[in-house]
Structure formats: C-alpha cells, structure tokens
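seq as requested:
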Amino acid sequence: MKPKTIEEYIDAAPAGLQERLWKLHETIKTAAPGAIEAMKWSMPAYSYQKILVTFAVFKNHTGFYPMPSAVKAFKKELTKYKTAEGSIQFPHDKPLPLPLIKKIVRFRVKESQEGMIKWRQ
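struct tokens:
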C-alpha cells in the first residue's frame, strides 16, 4: 500500500533510516511553519501555494528536492553532495546537514512568499 501521509511514509521506511527521516521532517517543519504537508509523486511534500521541497528515501541516500533555484543558490555549500538541477543526494552513511537543510527550506519559503507578492500585483 502507498503511504497516504508523511508519517506513514516514514514509518514504512527501513527501520535504520526512520530516525533520520523524522529529523529531516522536523527540520523542514521548523523552517517552514504552517506549510501544508502532503504526499506528491509518492514523496513527502511541503508547500504553501506551491511546493517548497520534497524528499524521498532510496537504498543509499535520501533525495532532497528543493527546486533548481535553491540548488543553484547553495551551490558552494553543496559541493560535498551529489546534485542535479533540482535535487541533492544525502548519503545514508553521513549525517544529514540539518542546519544547511533548514537554510535551504527558509530560502524556498522566502522565494514562495516573494512569488506570491509578485503574483498578486
């Protein structure tokens, strides 16, 4: 069965990764208070009017998807990680960079808020 909530997604992950995913979830919630939590494309997603970030667990890494603008904005801080246009891979054998993740999520919140202001004008 496909998880219907972020909590179900984390609970369905391998036992050795659940604590890691709970920390990621809490970090995102702290950086984006009031964000709407949902499952999108079978991944945990956090949004206001538009999606801020998503993540997914894989065999050897946690994929974090903060959109291309965030990957570009944090390029220097992300040199230790494999990245693509809108994604970052955090290997399971290394701790999650929670302070960096918090900064990235806050960047996306700011971007989202600025986008809504422009949209309303």
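Residues 98-120 form the longest helix (23 residues).
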